[in-house]
Write a structure and sequence with these properties.
This protein is an alpha+beta fold. It contains 14 helices and 37 strands. The protein is globular.
Amino acid sequence: MRALVFNPDNLVPLSAFTVLDGDQETANIAVHPAILNYVLRSGGKLSIARSLNGAVSIEEADAFDVEAGTVAVKVGDGGTVAVVSELLRNEFPIATHWDASLHEGRGGPREGASDAIGELRVEMGEGDGTEPGAGIVTSSLEMRDDLPESPYAFDTERLGLLIERPGESLRRAPGFDRYIGDVYSLYGVSEEAALLLSAEALKMTGYPVMFRNAGGDGEGPVSGLPVFQLFNNHVIRDAEGIGSLASFIVPPGWSEDRSGGYSCLFTGYYDQNENVYRHCGLPTIKAIGKAMELTGQGSVGIVWNGGGSIGTRTQHPSAFGQLNLLFRLAADRYAVNPHSIVTVGGSRGGLTALLAACNPLAEGYAVQYALCYGVPFSLYGPAADLLNVSYPARWEAICSDMGLKHAWRPGWRDEDGRNAVERYWLNTFGTADEERIATELHPQSERMLDALKERGTRVWLNSSTHDPFTSFAPALEWLRRARAHGIPVRHEIGYRHGHNNSTDLYEAAVRCLTAIASGEEAVSDETVHYRRTGEGTDEWMRTESFVPNRQPVFFEGPKLAVAGLTAALSVYGPPGTGYRLAIRPAVRGGVEEADANASASASASEGVDLGAGARMDSNAGADAPEADELVLMEGVLPERGESLTCSYASATWEVPGSLAGSAYLYELTYCHDLSAGDWIVVPPANVPHPGTDRPRRPELTITAEIPDFTGPVWFEATMVHFIGWGLSEV
């Protein structure tokens, strides 16, 4: 099926791509009146680009009506058409800064080059039988090292992804400040993929996008253009030669003489071209357009690669200096007010949004609002919890970052004797010293919270329970410390939502951009709760806010555990709540237990104190014989500061070998008033994985064999839609 978008000789499509059919002699094509006025005032003319039978032609427009915002086109033989003008032209191909001819054909970075390792292209949907389906941007990338005997995740022998510095031998894996895709993009962008972005922007905002390649000293934006101007892939490089990529999006009507400058919407994620053309570019444009519609004021968008496509999650210390250079460029060339910045992102993007705001080395810029969704705080430690069956997505993420595909194996060591966590931290932070990471580089350190407080930043923190990348507890700890510093934080909790956003982060960005324009505040110090609207395939993605009469109780733990390895267990609820987490055999005497989730006894078993009010049954950490019930944790949730209504208790469980090959059902009970002894059972059907096509049971399977923690079988067994495991009241 053919795509509806086509390249009209590099001219910017000023209207939607329209299929001409029917018996009428002419058709009226909608074009924003501001665009028509600009073309006419500038002495230009309007033309029609027509794609018919694989050929593109440019013809004069039949007529136009500025007031109505229409251009007439002769239907003729039909085809697909768009309105264009010679005044507005795209710059293709879009730069990647990758030259495939360098280094004896292995390739390497060269500013301005447009070769690529992978590709972003448009594929068409099925449609409804009467019209073609909507186009979507898909990616293809072949750079994995598939040789079984090779320890490397990426084919760095064939591809010069990590170009050696003088005196170095062939570099096969990322290292500290040496990341894949730092000053180049892994993906080439097809013309259709870029034009689809423009077409979608036009549909959402009324304005198309004009594409330009950014150069070091190249031409900047043109004042007064009634289109978004997107400048691809500025190279940001510090004095040591460490670099990153940023793309800038200026709004329609941008002027270098704007009094007070422009507010800025900043986001950072992974590979730069993939960021712009597949993930972040369109939502950023949509948010800027919506805020502009509400306030009459435009904003500049920035999309950043955080210093690399692979190998860093923007945690390397040199990123702080890169941010200074980036916002200085934004102010000097794109008229950004460096004190009117909104940062936004999810996952790594959420961490990047927070780090940009709490940059302890920031010079000349300040973030007003940091919108941080799904922040993986657990990547900072503690080391003992970083690789754990309760958070099944971490192994693959860390192995890919290191470029070492076998680092997930228990007992793995690198050539210098470091374990996987030590190697990961060294690559990321330049040190594996856990105390230094905690006190100097962690977003909850005094150093960074002081910086956040000093600049008056307000934080919008969205975190969901049962995230397979990170436990919920680190977000609570960051929240506790931030509020103790006097930092206003809106905390949104998405129950059983995993590594997904329970609210729309770009709608939140519109709210913050609008607040900057009006001088009002968009974030107040509050906690807001969100739950699913249902358990069906579509329902779970939709959420609704609710006001609980108390903090709901929930538990995070593994769905599949391995005998001999540790599993992290965490129980959450109101401070002072008694809790008891146990497992029972899922099968008894060959017959499935009818009531595996019967109410637990109010009496507490004797156990080993784990601190913070948690207790573990003494049988749980040893090779004990299988019992009818095994108590994993019990105790009372402690007070954790006045600002937190949600407390937690955490423990690690070394899974006994005697339990291998068995299946169990979790049972979580709690009591708000221990003196009354009224224990409540968390409904066993309230497991995190959505869907109504499978039994909803809180199962735990224990295996003797160690699976490939980076493979699809492991992911399928432990996650659904990037949601982990446990139980929850809500």
